Amino acid sequence: MFESASELSRRFAALRSGADFWSLRHVRETGEHYRVRRDVALPPAFGEDCGAMLTARVAGVEAYAATSDLSQAGLQAALERAERMARALAGHALLETRDLPLPGGVEDDVAPGYERPLAGPAHWFEVLGAESARVPRDARLVDWSVGLAVTCVEQIQLDSAGACLRRAQRFVYPSLSVTASDGHDSQTRSLGGFNFGQQGGAEVIERLGLIGAAPRIADEALQLLLAPNTPGGPRDLLLMPDQMMLQIHESIGHPLELDRILGDERNYAGTSFVRLEDFGHYRYGSPLLDVTFDPGRAGELASYRHDDDGTPARREYLIRGGILQRPLGGALSQSRSGLPGVACSRACSWNRAPIDRMANLNVEPGERSLAQLIGGIERGILMSTNRSWSIDDARNKFQFGCEWGRLIENGELRGVVKNPNYRGISAHFWRNLAAVGDASTVEVLGTPCCGKGEPNQAVRVGHASPACVFRNIDVFGGAAR
Amino acid sequence: MNAREHFHDLLDSLRPLLRGDEGFTLDYRAEDSEFVRFNRARVRQAGQVRQIHATLALYLGERHARFELSLSGTIEEDRPRLRHALERLRALVPALAPDPYLRLEREPWRSESSEAGAPPEVATAVGQILDAAAGLDLVGIHAAGPQYQGFASSWGAFGWHAASSFNFDWSLFHANGQAVKSAYAGQRWDAGTFARRMASARERLEYLGRPALTLAPGDYRAYLAPAALDEILDMLGGGFSAQALASGASPLQRLFAGSARLSPLVTLDERVAGGLAPAFTGEGPRRDLRLLAAGLPGERLIGSRSAAEYGLTANGAGDHEHPLSLAMAGGELDERDILARLDTGLYIGNLWYLNFSDRPAGRLTGMTRFATFWVENGRIQAPVGTMRFDDSVFDFLGPHLEALTREPETILPAGTYGARQSGSRTLPGALLGRFTLTL
Question: Where is the Metalloprotease TldD/E N-terminal domain (chain A) (predicted)?
Fold first, then answer.
C-alpha cells in the first residue's frame, strides 16, 4: 500500500515553483475484470493506471497540468506548465482563489479490509462459471453473462502548505444478466442493472447476492418475455431500492450540485431547477423525505474521510422533513455562493480536476415494512431495477424505465408486467412521497459511472435507500405510445 | 516526446522478450491536450493533460489475456513497466481456459496516417474567444492538442494514426435562460471562420429573447437539425453490432428480422475515408460498409469474435462492433427551404439525454435542448420551453420522414471521458411529418 509514497514525497519536496501555492494529487488505480458469457470464459483484463495532477496558484489564478510521467523531471515540467498557464490567464479568470482555505492536514484513510488479499483469476472464473452454468437451458435464453470487476485506488495528496492526505479504497462490482428473446421481443433481467457495487472484499459478492441468483434471474427474464405490457395511466408507484437509487441520483443529487446552480455546467451536464435562494426553506418533498450526504457509511461506494480538495468529510442533511437544507458544493463553490455545503469536490482520476460531485447520497429509512408498503396501495405498481433514464437539463422533467414490474391491486402483488416506465417532474414528484420503507428494506447500492464536467468525468457515487411509495404517478409500457 | 518513436521503442523492447509460441498485440493511445472551461465569458478552469496508455495482450495458442498500463513517455522508464505487464500476463495465461471464439488476424497489414494540424496556442484561442464573447454570457470548453493511436502485433500488423485538432464547444445564454449551442472544431483554427460562427450564434440568440412558448404534449411536425439527428444516431449506432443483433440487445433487431422498416430515404454508411477516426482497429484495416440501403438493412458490424460465435464473416469492425464514422446520405431538401417546408411545427436544434423506452421496438425518449423554435407558416415565432419526446425510430424515421437536407454536415464529438474522442458523423437534417412529445 502507498508503495510510491516516500519517493513521491521526496520528489514533491524537490519541486521548485514561483507559484503562491502548489499541490500534487497522485492516483494509482489497478483493476481486474472477469466475465463468463454463455458459459465461455472471456479473456480477463487487468490494468494499472498511474499519474499525477499538479496545480499552481499564481496571484489568485489556478491552473493544472496532469502527467503520467512521474519522474522528477516529469513532475517539475508539469508544475511549470501549470504555473505558466495560471500566469497566462491573469485577468481572464472567473474565480479568485487567493482567499480559499488551504486544506492542510496529515491523515491516512484506509478502507476496512483493504489489505486483505483477494483470490486470483482461477478462483473467480470457477465461481462465475458455476453461476453461469446455473442458467437453465432454454432456447429463448439467448444471452447471459456473469462478471466481476475489482478496482483498487490509492490516492496521495501533497501541497506546499504541508498537507499529506492518503486514501486507499477497493471497489467490488459483481454482475449478472440474462436476456430472453422470441425473435421479435427481448427482455433482459439483471442483478442490480448498471448500479451494483460496494467497497470491500469478497464479502461484497455474497452480500449483494450473486451466488445462486442465476436461476431466479433467468426465470424472471422468461416471465417478462411472456408478460403483458405495463398498462398506461396514473397509479401509486412502489420503487424498490435498485430504482430508488437512480431516482435519488437524477432528481435530487444532480439538481443540488452547486456548480450547476452557479452555471458551470450549462454547456454540458446542464443547470438546475433549484435556485441559490431556495436553500433553507424550499419544500422539495413530503415531510417523509430525509436525505443525507453520508461519507461515513461503511461499504458504500463514496465513503471517504476527505474530498479531493482536502476538506474533511462529515454527514449532513441535505433535505430534512422535506425542506431543502444545503447543496452539494465543495469549498470553492461554498466560497462562490456564500452557502454551506459538504466535502464533495471530487475528480475521477489524476487526469481530471475536482468539481462538485455527489458522493454517498442516501434517503433515510422510515417505519414501514415492505408488506406494509404493498398493503397500503389500492391500485399501483412495483418497479425494480433501472434500465433507462432520461431527464432534462434543469433536472426536472424525467422519464425512467425499469426491468421488472408487478401490478398491485387492493394491497396485494399481482401479475408481472414488462417495460414498466414512468414519467414526472422532480419539483412535484418528491412531494408525492407517501410512504418510506424501514431499515429492513434498505439496500446499499451505487453507480461507478456518474458522468459530468468539461472535460468529462465519470465518478463512483453511492446511494442507500429504502423502498418508497409515491402517489398518483403517470406510468406506461412499451411499444404503442 | 515523439509518440511514433516511443511506440516503436516499445515494440522493439517487447519483441525480444517473447518466448516460444507466444504472440502479442500492443494498442497505444496518447494525447497532449489543453482544456479551458468558460463560464460567464471568463475562464472557469484550465489545464493540460499529457497521458499515454498501452494495452498489451499476450496470446499462447487459444489462451489470452490483456493488461492496460499508463506510460511516462520515456522509454527507460516504460521498458520495465511493459516487462512487468508481460510477466504478469505470462504467469496466468497458460492456466486460462482456451477461448473458442479467438480468431486472430495473423496476416501482416500496415496502415498509417498523420495529419499535422495546427491548433491555436491556448492564449490565442482564449483571447479570441473572450474578445468575441464581450457582452455575452458564454459557457463551454476549448480542447486542443495532438492525439496518437497505434496498434501492432507480433504477426506483422502495424497501424499508426496521429492528428492534431481543436474543438471549441460552447453555448450563449440569454438572460431568460434560453441558449444557443455552437461548435467550431477542426485541425486549423481560422479567426475568420470562428468569427462567423460566433456571429451566427449571436444572431440566433436574438430570437431567444421572445417569450418562450409552452407546448402541450402531442404530435407535431418537426425539423431535426443535424446535431439533433446526431443524438438519434448515437443511440442507434451500437444496434448494427452483430453480437447485439444476435443477443436481443439491438434496437434494430426488428429491422434486421424484417418485421420493421425505415423510410427509403435513409441510407447509412460506415465510411472510412473522410472520417477522423483511425483507418484501422485491433482487427485490421476498417472497411467501408453500407449499413442501411434505402431503408433496408445492409451489413452488420462484425468483429472476429462474433464471426466465430455466430458463423459470420468478420468485416474489420473490431471487437467493439461500433461505428466510428457514420455517414448518412443527403436528400432533396434545400437548406434554404427548411422553414417553408416545415410550415408549422418545431425546429429542433439539439436533442439531449436520449434513452430507450422500449429497445426492441426502437422506441426512444429524450429532451429538446438549446435552440428549439416554434415555426408558423414558415416563420420562426418563438423559442419553445424544454419538451420530452417519446417515439419509435420506425415511425419518425419510417413513414413520417418526409425529407432530408441536401448537404450533410460533419459533426466532431466533443466527448472527453477518459480521453478526447475521435471519430465523426456526417448527417443531414431531417424533416418529420410527425414527432411525438409527451411531457
Answer: 22-86
Q: Is B174 on the interface with A (CB under 8 A)?
A: no
Last residue of a domain, one of A226, A245, A273: A226
Question: Cβ of B39 and A94 within 8 Å?
Answer: yes
Confirm or reject contact between A393 and chain B (CB < 8 A): yes
Residue with cell 459483481: A174
Given CB atoms, is A76 within the 8 Å cutoff of chain B?
no
Q: Mark which of A174, A207, A226 sits at the end of a domain.
A: A226
Q: List Cβ neighbours of B58 (8 Å cut-off, separation of 6 or more).
A: B22, B23, B24, B64, B65, B66, B67, B86, B89, B90, B93
Name the one residue in this structure whose C-alpha cell is 474522442: B421
Cβ pair A390:B388 closer than 8 A:
yes
Q: Which residues of B touch A353 (CB under 8 A)?
A: 45, 47
> In angstroms, what separates the C-alpha of A403 from chain B's closest C-alpha?
11
Domain covering B3-207, topology:
PmbA/TldD fold (3.30.2290)
Shared-domain flag, residues A339 and A381: yes
Helix (H, G, I), strand (E, B) or coil at B139: strand
> Are A221 and A238 in the same domain?
no
Chain A, nearest residue to B144 by Cα? A455
B46: which chain A residues are within 8 Å (Cβ-Cβ)? 63-64, 85, 89
CB contact under 8 A, B390 and A388: no
Phi, psi of A220, rounded to the nearest 5 degrees: -70, -35
Q: Domain span at residue A186?
A: 5-226
**C-alpha grid cell for residue B412?**
466532431
Domain count, chain A: 2
Map grid coordinates 412495483 to a residue.
A382
Q: Is A43 on the interface with B (CB under 8 A)?
A: yes
Largest Cα separation within chain B, whole Å, is 75
State whether A247 and A205 are in the same domain: no
Q: Residue A455, preceding bond cis, omega within 30 degrees? A: yes
The grid coordinates listed for A214 are 442465476
Nearest to B171 among A67, A185, A266 (CB): A266
B175 contact A CB<8A: no
A325 shares a domain with A192: no
Residue of A327, A366, A44 whose CA lies nearest to B68: A44
Q: What is the pLDDT along chain B (439 residues), one digit of tens a residue?
A: 799 999 999 999 999 999 999 999 999 999 999 999 999 999 999 999 999 999 999 999 999 999 999 999 999 999 999 999 999 999 999 999 999 999 988 899 999 999 877 777 888 889 999 999 999 999 999 999 999 999 999 999 999 999 999 999 999 999 999 999 999 998 889 999 999 999 999 998 988 988 999 999 999 999 999 999 999 999 999 999 999 999 999 999 999 999 999 999 999 999 998 778 899 999 999 999 999 999 999 999 999 999 999 999 999 898 999 999 999 999 999 999 999 999 999 999 999 999 999 999 999 999 999 889 999 999 999 999 999 999 999 999 999 999 999 999 999 999 999 999 988 999 999 999 999 999 9
- Mutate which of A68, A79, A350, A389 to test chain B, going by most B C-beta atoms within 10 A? A68
Question: How close, in Å, is residue B332 to chain A by CA atoms?
Answer: 30
